[in-house]
Design a protein that fits this description.
It contains eight helices and five strands. By secondary structure, the chain is an alpha/beta fold. The protein has a single domain, classed as 3-Layer(aba) Sandwich (Rossmann fold). Strands 2-1-3-4-5 form a five-stranded parallel sheet, with helices on both faces.
Length: 149
């Protein structure tokens, strides 16, 4: 997983204190939205507070809901996940953003990191790698009694 300096410096401590971690999922695939929603439901410590099916709506939902975490697809109608992430990261408060994308290539990972994402997980591995990626961003959540992470 690629991780930005802000996360390493503990920029998301406020989110850890406000457990559960409020999460928005941005993906244009109904199947992926359902899968990510189910994944969050089974992990204690996370609350799905909103979804969006395109980049513009995703940015608006993040501004409106002020989540702690955003799970972002790359290929979105209107505005791709890179640009949506850049816009989200330019605002305050700044949530953690993990890109969950079909295109799991070194070039895609580098572009995701350059856009400000805090982590990257290929969709084909989201059920096995996403919980660990989230735990890296919010380590206290994984240490809480009764959590599955």
């Amino acid at each position: 997983m690629t991780m930005n300096r802000k996360v390493q410096d503990g920029a998301y401590e406020a989110a850890v204190r406000s457990w559960p971690v409020r999460t928005v999922v941005v993906d244009d695939s109904p199947t992926a939205l359902k899968a990510l929603s189910l994944l969050l439901e089974r992990e204690n410590g996370f609350q799905l507070v909103g979804t969006a099916t395109d980049g513009y709506h995703g940015v608006r939902r993040v501004i409106e809901l002020q989540p702690d975490l955003v799970l972002m697809d790359l290929r979105l109608p209107g505005m791709n996940g890179f640009e949506a992430t850049r816009r989200i990261k330019a605002r305050s408060p700044v949530p953690a953003v993990v890109m969950v994308a079909e295109d799991d290539t070194p070039e895609c990972r580098a572009a995701a990191s350059a856009s400000g994402t805090d982590g990257f997980v290929g969709k084909q591995q989201m059920f096995t790698r996403l919980p660990a990626a989230i735990r890296d961003l919010f380590p206290t959540v994984g240490n809480m009694k009764g959590t599955k992470l």
